[in-house]
Specification:
By secondary structure, the protein is α/β, with parallel strands linked by helices. The protein has a single domain (8-161, 186-214, 254-269), classed as NAD(P)-binding Rossmann-like Domain (Rossmann fold, 3-Layer(aba) Sandwich). 39% of the residues lie in helices and 15% in strands. It is built from ten helices and twelve strands. The chain has helices at residues 16-27, 45-52, 67-70, 74-95, 127-142, 162-171, 189-199, 218-228, 258-261, 271-283; strands at 8-11, 33-35, 57-60, 98-104, 147-151, 154-155, 176-179, 183-184, 187-188, 206-209, 216-217, 235-238. The strands form four sheets. Strands 2-1-3-4-5-10 form a six-stranded parallel sheet, sandwiched between helices. The chain has a two-stranded parallel ribbon with strand order 6-9. α5 links the parallel β4 (98-104) and β5 (147-151). It is globular. The mean pLDDT is 95. The structure holds NADP nicotinamide-adenine-dinucleotide phosphate. NADP nicotinamide-adenine-dinucleotide phosphate (NAP) binds at residues 12, 14-18, 36-37, 40-43, 61-65, 80, 102, 104, 132, 151-154, 159.
Length: 284
């Protein structure tokens, strides 16, 4: 992808979050230099060194994100999500470049009965979660001044996501079974991008949790979506254990966002408000 500005570099800029983040930065007058597969591979140290050379901040949105497939491709998941992130930390450190890295609620096992704070013990259940957790550790070891933002249940305009799949299946009259025992906060990538833009003005160090305000089960989220879109869906609830999936997922994905909230200008928008705005595209 074309390079436009060297003060901020986005890796993984063609992904769901990277696309919205690049647009938000550009709207704020700081068009970033953007890199992604196939022209750019984060596992190639020379390419990383060239990409971030001369910039002030690198934001890493590049990741191996296929949670199910990672169970059968652990080497690739670790190569992208862990080893490459550690090397990015070393290269950035040598060049005096600040790193902001995106991570996930999947670093937790979801067994706590309250929202997770940044200092809670991690215990990833899946290869994806374990590889992302290893990436966090390697990055902080290589570059302790880095900023890591753990996000969750994100949806955006670019690519496919849980919401698009639900709406598409319901519109085609397919029966839907959605789990009611996974709880979290559906979070718009536009919301994450806006928060990152505010945060980088002061560039904090350490781990932060970021999600839309409030919590909901996947099943209640589906009900909310069909209610707002006036779709009469054939929807029933079920349990995570009713599905046989390769990767285990945390049931409690709630993130406590108090730490990051204190650094943002205003309150974090509720999942209902941002999701309602997102759903407008399905009515048009
Ligand atoms: N989506 C969620 O619900 C969610 C939840 C929590 C955290 N996150 C985190 O949010 C971040 C952004 O993810 P996303 O949702 O935007 O996922 P995404 O759409 O899959 O974006 C990831 C991007 O990284 C690229 N990539 C993969 N391997 C690469 C490599 N070797 N070199 C360079 N780029 C590579 C992907 O390219 P290809 O598409 O060509 O593979 C894709 O463009 C990730 O760190 C992810 O772990 C996501």
């Amino acid at each position: 992808m074309a390079e436009t500005n060297k003060s901020i570099v986005i890796l993984g800029a063609a992904g769901m979050l990277g696309t919205d983040l690049a647009a938000e930065l550009t709207a704020q007058g700081i068009a970033p230099a953007v890199f992604d597969l196939p022209a750019f591979d984060i596992t190639d140290s020379d390419q990383v060194a060239n990409a971030i050379s001369g910039c002030d901040l690198v934001i890493n949105c590049a990741a191996y994100t296929n949670v199910e497939k990672a169970e059968s491709e652990p080497e690739l998941a670790y190569k992208v999500n862990a080893d490459a992130v550690g090397r990015l930390g070393n290269i950035a450190s040598a060049q005096g470049v600040k790193v902001l890295h995106i991570s996930t609620d999947f670093v937790f096992d979801g067994t706590l009965d309250r929202p997770y704070v940044e200092t809670d013990d991690t215990n990833a259940l899946s290869i994806y979660g374990k590889s992302k957790l290893e990436g966090e550790k390697l990055l902080l070891a290589a570059n302790p001044d880095s900023c890591i933002i753990r996000i969750q249940w994100t949806y955006g305009n670019n690519g496919n996501n849980f919401i698009k799949k639900l709406v598409s299946l319901a519109q085609r009259g397919k029966p839907l079974r959605v789990v009611d025992d996974q709880v979290g906060s559906p979070t718009a990538t536009e919301q994450v991008s806006a928060a990152i833009c505010k945060l980088i003005k002061n560039m904090p160090t350490g781990i932060f949790h970021l999600a839309a305000a409030g919590f909901v089960s996947r099943f209640d989220m589906a009900k909310f979506i069909f209610d707002k879109l006036a779709i009469k869906a054939d929807l029933t609830s079920c349990k995570t254990s009713d599905f046989s999936s390769a990767a285990q997922r945390p049931l409690n994905s709630r993130l406590d966002c108090s730490k990051i909230s204190s650094l943002l200008d205003g309150p974090i928008e509720s999942w209902q408000n941002s999701l309602e705005k997102y759903l407008k595209q399905f009515r048009e």
